[in-house]
Design goal:
Blueprint (H helix, E strand, L loop, with lengths): L1 H23 L5 H33 L1
């Protein structure tokens, strides 16, 4: 699960950078800004799923 979490984290951070750079330039189309936000959303969902998997694994190891 850590490879998947790393992949989602990289996607989220690249989306953050893309969104910040796109917002600085008014000539860039809005679709690119939306793509950056969608990458950030993918990163957020991956982080949530990774955290849930880690909590589940820790909860099962204590039983």
């Amino acid at each position: 699960m850590t490879r998947l979490t790393t992949l989602f984290t990289a996607a989220g951070l690249s989306g953050l950078i893309l969104t910040m750079l796109t917002a600085l330039n008014p000539e860039v189309p809005a679709a690119l800004l939306a793509f950056g936000f969608s990458l950030m959303l993918i990163g957020l969902l991956g982080a949530l799923f990774g955290a849930a998997a880690s909590v589940t694994r820790a909860w099962q190891s204590t039983r």
